[in-house]
Write a structure and sequence with these properties.
CATH architecture of the largest domain: 2-Layer Sandwich
Structural class: alpha+beta
Helix content: 40-55%
Shape: elongated
Number of domains: 2
Radius of gyration: 21 Å
Number of helices: 7
Largest sheet: 4 strands, mixed
CATH topology of the largest domain: Methyltransferase, Cobalt-precorrin-4 Transmethylase, Domain 2
Number of strands: 10
Strand order of the largest sheet: 1-2-5-4
Order of helices and strands: HEHEHEEEEEEHHHHEE
């Protein structure tokens, strides 16, 4: 095979591979980015994937799936900033570059982190934590932060059924509720309710769902 034939075959392989990814559309583990103009905004996606199931960013791909390509080295530089400067702690990320019809597409793959939460630094220098739900990046609830703290405890750790835990379980019996309503109905301090919900979720007594742009917790 000649050098030029090799280049053509390699480009066709890249094209077919990218097209197979694009056909999946945007979902829990995939997002399209037409361009990278703000490393801090990109860090939100990195945080969300790292805190959930992992995923990949197809950079240089429009929302409709058309491959426009990465425009400049500056965009690639901002991708690195998103993972290594605007995420705390640094997120693991792998960049793969593909060439199709004179355009460069970058696939950034983010594995699920073992050091959750991975936070993103916002425009005010504050740390925000995100999770991925369907095709959206959502700010994590305080309960998620507590769930990750619970996950760091030894596997043999047990849960004692205190009066407070029994009250929260009773409140959750009828229907899933947002955190603030659980606090009001149980008359238990908010920080305690957050810890209790995290424990109940860890031991699979309770669960959370995201409905109508709010987190609900139920048995």
């Amino acid at each position: 095979m000649s050098f030029f034939s090799y280049l053509y075959t390699s480009e066709m392989d890249d094209k077919h591979f990218l097209q197979s990814l694009i056909r999946e559309g945007e979902h829990q583990q995939q997002d399209f980015k037409y361009k990278v103009s703000d490393a801090q905004k990109l860090a939100k996606s990195v945080s969300a994937f790292a805190n959930t199931d992992g995923g990949r960013l197809l950079i240089g791909v429009r929302d409709d799936g058309n491959m426009s390509g990465v425009r400049s080295e500056e965009e690639i530089y901002m991708m690195h900033l998103a993972a290594y400067r605007y995420c705390r702690p640094e997120a693991s990320i792998k960049f793969d570059t593909y060439h199709v019809e004179g355009r460069t597409i970058v696939v950034a793959t983010i594995p699920p982190s073992e050091r959750r939460p991975i936070c993103a630094v916002d425009e005010n220098g504050k740390l925000r934590t995100y999770i991925r739900i369907a095709d959206e990046n959502i700010v994590a609830s305080p309960v998620h932060l507590a769930i990750w703290r619970e996950a760091q405890k030894p596997e043999g750790a047990m849960m004692t059924y205190t009066d407070s835990i029994k009250k929260v379980i009773k409140v959750l019996q009828d229907q899933p509720l947002p955190l603030n309503q659980i606090v009001r109905r149980s008359r238990i301090p908010r920080y305690k309710v957050i810890t209790i919900l995290a424990q109940l979720i860890r031991f699979r007594i309770a669960q959370w769902e995201y409905t109508d742009q709010q987190f609900l917790f139920g048995l």
